[in-house]
Amino acid sequence: MNIKIENSISVDEFLELIESVGWKLYSRKQVEKALKNSMYVVKVLVDNKLAGMGRVVGDYSIVCMLSDICVMPEYQGKGIGKLIVNKLRELIIDNVLDGEKMQIELTPTAGNEIFYQKCGFKYNPDKVTGMYLWVEK
Ligand SMILES: CC(C)(COP(=O)(O)OP(=O)(O)OC[C@H]1O[C@@H](n2cnc3c(N)ncnc32)[C@H](O)[C@@H]1OP(=O)(O)O)[C@@H](O)C(=O)NCCC(=O)NCCS
């Protein structure tokens, strides 16, 4: 497998990836805005074919969040998800200055908890538990 990581993704590629894993689709306009406002975006190509992506949103200083980590079904189980998380983590760490710390948040979907634990994430560090709310119009 020839694996390449790039730091950008098109709206079409984003939509293709989320559709491949059965997530709800957003409008092109909403995706375009989300990508533009992301801290980091990575895309993985395997033999020049789109295989996975992930992104980070945040304030570049104190807190950020991993989002839209996904690998196309045919490429899952080959270490690509972990590669994406590690790359995003590297990009975040590069942004942290000496003496500073930054929190990386993450919401695993059911069934993927062990994957993120294998990527180094922990439950309830410092008694932090997550709460979520979707808003819709
Ligand atoms: C979750 C996902 C990103 C994992 O990517 P992947 O490329 O298949 O995972 P990797 O091959 O890098 O796996 C890394 C490790 O996690 C383990 N792992 C991966 N998915 C797992 C799961 N669902 N449950 C338990 N372990 C899992 C692997 O066995 C591997 O373990 P190892 O390091 O001991 O060999 C991918 O399955 C996916 O895109 N799923 C659909 C979209 C999704 O749900 N994304 C997550 C949203 S929170």
Topology readout:
Layout: E1 3-6, H1 11-20, H2 28-36, E2 40-46, E3 49-58, E4 63-71, H3 80-95, E5 103-105, H4 113-118
Parallel strand pairs: 4-5
Antiparallel strand pairs: 1-2, 2-3, 3-4
The structure holds coenzyme A.
Coenzyme A binds at residues 21, 69-71, 76-82, 108-109, 111-112, 114-115, 118.
Question: How is this structure best described in words?
Answer:
The protein has helices at 11-20, 28-36, 80-95, 113-118; strands spanning 3-6, 40-46, 49-58, 63-71, 103-105. α1 packs across α2 (28-36). It has a single domain (3-127), classed as Aminopeptidase. It is built from four helices and five strands. A hairpin with a 4-residue loop joins β3 (49-58) and β4 (63-71). 20% of the residues are buried. By secondary structure, it is an alpha+beta fold. The chain binds coenzyme A. Coenzyme A (COA) is lined by residues 21, 69-71, 76-82, 108-109, 111-112, 114-115, 118.
Q: In one word, what is the shape?
A: globular
Provide the CATH architecture.
3-Layer(aba) Sandwich
Tell me the helix content: 25-40%
Overall number of domains: 1
Category by helix and strand content? alpha+beta
Which CATH C-level class is it?
Alpha Beta
- Rg is 15 Å
Overall average pLDDT:
96
